[in-house]
């Protein structure tokens, strides 16, 4: 295979792998082949690997390898973070070596000379901000204040203490086992920034996503325009060939582009990497923004899925309101044993329940951009 085909194969394999790891646990995919592949990669393959490794390596070596394996897959490690930084830097270096000398060009406007460097610097800055910002770690000093931000909905958040931190768990918070602390308005732990995403840094995480999408599509457009310039300079857009029967054909544009990719393998691979990255991150970001506008964190989204499952099984039952002044919902819902005949009045659908954290699109956006300080 030619270098270009190899590059394409590696890129597609890599992105398929990332897609399976990202989307495997989601409700949409978890019952299908992507969910099965996810479970195989994260569980079955691990079990098989462990069984064979112990037999082959002996217990001592196996324990050592198993620790590395667990650290790579389940520990707080900078591997994905380093991968992002490496890919970004390789992309920037390739562009500076082979793309930058063509700016400005026949199709690349001069203003790009002034917009490309800030775009690169901004992407690094947004990444660093997302990596090193405080997501909203809760400790004894701020737990009281953190508890005042959101009320308990008595549905997915109940007043209780964190078993590890031994302090009260504010509504919407979650203990992150990787970071080792409770995080206010916990969204998720992101391996790409090796940090939790929570109340205090959610906006910086979004900025990082937008910066990545922007630089990816911007790089793609500039490289395509550079190629177009080269094509016109070399007259390839008017290139004709004559077949054996003596008929003359104009070479189609897509073939000219494939030729350009072969002639500029590194810059071409960068464009393909950039457009694939841009599309995957855009896909993820659209879903993420939608949950934000609905007043739901990623963590709460998973809990709502559990609630939905309980409703379908008829296991979500209304109880009489208990003596809790914080209970804003007219009902308090408990997960109960369906065989208990004493319980009645099951919740029929999600519409009967209220997400008390949903402040409307504008309110949710303001809550994200200007969170209440803790
Ligand atoms: Zn905790
Ligand atoms: Zn975390």
Automatic annotation (TrEMBL):
GO biological-process terms attached to the record: protein targeting to membrane
Signal sequence residues: none
The answer to whether keyword Transferase applies is yes
What is the annotated localization of this protein?
A: Membrane
Transmembrane segments in this chain: where? Answer: 6-24, 83-101, 107-127, 204-228, 265-293
Q: Name one GO cellular component term.
A: Golgi apparatus
* The EC number(s) this enzyme carries: 2.3.1.225
Q: Does the keyword Lipoprotein apply?
A: yes
* Top-tier EC class: transferase
The record's listing under Pfam families reads: DHHC
Q: Palmitoyltransferase DHHC domain spans which residues?
A: 160-304
Alphabetized GO MF terms: protein-cysteine S-palmitoyltransferase activity
Give the principal location in a single coarse category.
Answer: membrane
Q: How does it sit in the membrane?
A: Multi-pass membrane protein
| Alphabetically ordered keywords of this record | Acyltransferase, Lipoprotein, Membrane, Palmitate, Transferase, Transmembrane, Transmembrane helix
Q: Catalyses which reaction?
A: L-cysteinyl-[protein] + hexadecanoyl-CoA = S-hexadecanoyl-L-cysteinyl-[protein] + CoA
What's this protein's family per the entry? Belongs to the DHHC palmitoyltransferase family.
User: What free text does the record give on domains?
Assistant: The DHHC domain is required for palmitoyltransferase activity.
Protein name (database record): Palmitoyltransferase
Source species: Basidiobolus meristosporus CBS 931.73
């Amino acid at each position: 295979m030619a270098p270009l085909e190899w590059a394409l194969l590696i890129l597609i394999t890599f992105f398929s792998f990332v897609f399976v790891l990202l989307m495997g646990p989601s409700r949409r995919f978890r019952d299908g082949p992507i969910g099965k592949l996810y479970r195989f990669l994260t569980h079955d393959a691990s079990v098989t690997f462990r069984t064979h490794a112990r037999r082959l390596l002996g217990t001592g070596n196996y324990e050592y390898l198993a620790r590395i394996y667990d650290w790579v897959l389940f520990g707080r490690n900078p591997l994905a973070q380093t991968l992002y930084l490496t890919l970004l830097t390789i992309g920037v270096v390739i562009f500076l070596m082979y793309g930058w000398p063509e700016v400005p060009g026949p199709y690349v406007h001069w203003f790009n000379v002034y917009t490309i460097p800030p775009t690169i610097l901004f992407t690094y800055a947004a990444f660093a901000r997302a990596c090193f910002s405080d997501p909203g770690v809760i400790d004894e000093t701020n737990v009281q204040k953190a508890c005042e931000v959101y009320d308990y909905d008595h549905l997915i958040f109940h007043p209780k203490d964190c078993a590890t931190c031994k302090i009260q768990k504010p509504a919407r918070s979650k203990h992150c086992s990787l970071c080792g602390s409770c995080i206010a308005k916990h969204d998720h732990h992101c391996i790409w920034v090796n940090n939790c995403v929570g109340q205090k840094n959610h906006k910086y995480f979004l900025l990082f996503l937008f910066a990545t999408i922007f630089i990816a599509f911007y790089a793609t457009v500039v490289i395509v325009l550079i190629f177009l310039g080269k094509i016109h300079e070399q007259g390839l857009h008017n290139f004709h060939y004559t077949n054996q029967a003596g008929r003359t054909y104009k070479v189609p544009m897509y073939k000219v582009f494939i030729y350009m990719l072969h002639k500029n393998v590194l810059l071409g691979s960068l464009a393909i990497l950039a457009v694939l990255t841009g599309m995957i991150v855009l896909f993820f970001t659209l879903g993420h923004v939608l949950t934000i506008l609905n007043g739901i964190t990623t963590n709460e989204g998973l809990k709502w899925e559990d609630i939905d499952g309980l409703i379908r099984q008829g296991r979500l039952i209304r109880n009489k309101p208990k003596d809790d002044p914080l209970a804003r919902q007219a009902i308090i819902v408990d997960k109960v044993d369906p065989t208990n005949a004493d319980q009645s009045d099951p919740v029929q659908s999600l519409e009967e329940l209220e997400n008390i954290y949903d402040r409307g699109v504008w309110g949710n956006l303001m809550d994200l951009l200007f969170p209440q300080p803790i």
